[in-house]
Amino acid sequence: MSQELYFNIITFDLPDKPITFYLSKEKIGNAQKLYKTKFPTNIEDLFPGIKEENPDFIYTSFIYEKEGYLPLKLNLKEQPTDLIKHYYNWRIKKFFKSIKKLVGQNFVNDNQIWIGNRSYQNKSFAQYYKFTVKVQIKEVSEYGELVISYDGMAKVFKKPISEIIKHTSTTNLNKVVYKMRLLKYHKEKEFIDDNTKAFAILNNDLRTAFNIQPEPKDDSNKYISYKHKIDKFIQHFILSDEFKKVIPVNNDDYLPVEINRIGEVTDESNDLLFQNGVGRNPKIDFKNLKPLNPCQLDNVHFFFIHHTSYAKEVEALQKLLEDGTSWYKGLNIYAGVLAHFDNDVNIVFDDLENPLPQISQGIKDFKSDPNINYVAIYLSPFNKHEPNLEKKLVYYKVKEQLLYKRIISQVIEFDRFRRNQHKFIYDLTNISLALLAKLDGTPWQLNVKPKNELVIGVGAFKNTEENIRYVASAFSFKNNGRFNEFHYFSKSDVKQLGGALSDAIYQYVPTNQIPEKIVIHFYKDMKDEEIQPVLEMMDKLKLPCPLFVLNINKTKSQDIIAFDQNWNGELIPMSGTFINIGRKDEHKYLLFNNLRYKTTVQYPSHSSYSFPIKLKISSPTPEALNDSKMIRKLIEQVYQFSRLYWKSLRQQNVPITIKYPEMVAQIAPRFNNGVPDDAKDALWFL
Fold first, then answer.
1. Are the C-beta atoms of residues 223 and 653 closer than 8 Å to each other?
2. Could you give the angle at the alpha carbon of 653 between the alpha carbons of 651 and 654, nearest 5°?
């Protein structure tokens, strides 16, 4: 069955006739500020010599006559794209404000429209659905384009902030609704004249302060619910006669994806190599085909870190890990980890509220045998949603202290195990997988011919809840996905980043032949100053191979995606489909990665419904991008590396070149002494 792919885009016509903008060099009253990249192409007709003057900004009232502003006729089709987008964003914002809708902006200044959910009944909150209307100009068509996306739901307190701050600090406030405006409280509170008319938007801090439980996780097909919501939004607003007077929408249907924009990875890109053959679905094949390489370490001894009252549960958990059940048959048979449980060295604590001092003392006093490889299973009294930061950080402190003792660790939430012992075998499958990888085993790898190429991934993490700045880390891999080593550093430290990337190349070359190519997977656009140290190292080592940089982004909800209208109503494009979403000679792609293959009749239940990721491919030597076969290989490699995630058997859509660095960047800043050097070539963080 062939695919019928559609973008979440509604197109509109750019005007054929000139329109008049009103402009001024100085700001007079309310006006829109235009940066110099947005200056009209014929700006010299209005302000002779302005290009030589080179001011950073001019001002405009756009199509409205205004005292002090001069008229200039423009053919919009000949103007800078940024100017056209600014103009239409301004018109869209004015339209939705005119019909009394809340309008905010996302981090790239696209309009985000908040629509109240009238059917939501709750005495404490009002609920809003958030939609982004993103303007593009001739990106994937010959028209103006409105990318319509659903950004999730927000809740707003019905009581004003004058009431809720009686029960919590103003430091917990972030965004508020005030007189039909969305404001950032701490940056814009001077605009709030009456706190009895300002209403806080629920965030994590307020959720914790008022002990409000998070929304239950929705594992249903989000393509269906997503499209249903944007269908209603488009029908009600975008296709209305009033909106069409503002933005001349020219088609009531979604924009079809042109066939020449669609590609597919090779079918073999789905293949994973296990001990007893080739598979595609780790959830099934890991158990049936067995791990590629069992645990490579001898004398593996397990012990527990637990509260005194957990003795019965520790015994039950040990029995499951040793003997398993009729389906999960224990660590050895299921995951190839031959383990001995040494309960004589268990670390036991009796303070449930503050267990760290006793655990730390137990680790400090731990007498390890150099001939034994130890694994600690920490039964944590705190879950991942623990609101108390000090309690939440215990896990990281325990992991760090064990790592400095060269002890691998695995955390298990005690309450989760206690409540669901009969279902916990499903957790144990993932835990066993991660333990095998931590113990230098290989669950599976790509079924590809080894090539002499180096792949380096850089990811980052920011935890706003705990005020941890972005921290990045760099991982290096061989082409079959075999991990080499990693480094981590502050996001803002370009020197350390360049050093880490250069070091990955320097460490690889002496023990290998000259690589055929070097590929960097980066979590954002890579700047020239970040690439330069890599080029200098390649020059120093006299490496003639090409360098490719792939910017890899998880597709946020405020972005372009695609639906397949021709597959059982499920809407999910086939796994391995990639779509060119750039203009001519731009290497920008959507890449879909899921469990729908050519032979799939119905999408597997309880599987991931991930949206696509976005790729942007570049090279310091542009001629290297002329090879279409190479471009395809680079896309296939991203696809394949997403299938090497060893923390869970569930299919991922982000490659480990980005995912693993992000995981380290989440953990490492919480360590007091950083990651030990001898732990930088191991997967202890899984």
1. no
2. 120
